[in-house]
Design brief:
This protein is α/β, with parallel strands linked by helices. The chain is built from 7 helices and 7 strands. Strands 3-2-1-4-5-7-6 form a 7-stranded mixed β-sheet, with helices on both faces. The radius of gyration is 18 Å and the shape is globular.
Length: 221
């Protein structure tokens, strides 16, 4: 609870675990596009899937400068994308590659931001409403069957204040880091309470993160 991202991560992981349980089967291959440090790999390893990370550097599979994933067509049962889409300059290329490497009947588990601070990594291009994200996925050949909202506006605004305050407090010599940790503990506890009193209909269309489950539209290969 002393991390500034704790509230978001607390909600994302169970959402991802739930969707993985719905579509992940032992022996299947899951490819994580833009895997980074692979924080969700254990979820898929524990279900007996063969997890493959794909990224520009330091991954099992390379994504080249043009955005092409160095995998054959229809080589994955499950494509994963966690907090990557907002950083992608060419969404059509990225989702096109996700579609290309999926086998017929395969699924896409994807999370991205509805609301968040600007955070270039190395670029940061967009945010989505729920309707906008579903339309974006549909426009690129995916039919979304689930869209799980994570963190509503009350808790999100508390998180925003926490991030900004922690950034300033950590600059204080010697005591900055422990003070920031204490502040995170207090604000995250407040965020838990705020999330509990936020109506589902509010969270549904005003979430900080959306975690989606999609399949190839029309059973396309």
């Amino acid at each position: 609870m002393t991390d500034t991202d704790w509230l978001v991560l607390r909600g994302m992981r169970p959402a991802i675990e739930k969707l993985a349980a719905q579509v992940g089967r032992a022996g299947q291959r899951a490819v994580d596009l833009g895997c980074g440090s692979q924080p969700y790999r254990p979820i898929f390893d524990s279900r007996g899937l063969t997890y493959t990370g794909a990224d520009f550097t330091a991954a099992e599979v390379r994504i080249d400068a043009s955005g092409r994933v160095e995998l054959p067509d229809a080589s994955a049962d499950l494509v994963l994308s966690f907090q990557v889409l907002e950083h992608v300059r060419d969404v059509g290329r990225y989702l096109g590659e996700a579609r290309r490497v999926l086998r017929r009947g395969g699924s896409l588990i994807l999370s991205t931001h509805g609301t968040w601070l600007y955070h270039p990594h190395p670029e940061d291009h967009r945010r989505w409403t729920r309707a906008g994200l579903l339309a974006e996925l549909a426009a690129h050949g995916f039919e979304t069957t689930e869209c799980v909202p994570v963190l509503g506006p009350l808790a999100w605004t508390t998180l925003l204040r926490l991030i900004c305050a922690s950034h300033a407090i950590r600059r204080i010599p010697l005591i900055g880091t422990p003070l920031a940790a204490l502040l995170a503990l207090i604000m995250n506890a407040r965020g838990i309470l705020e999330e509990r009193i936020t109506p589902e209909w509010v969270r549904r269309d005003n979430a900080c993160v959306y975690v989606t489950l999609s399949r190839l539209a029309g059973g396309a290969a």
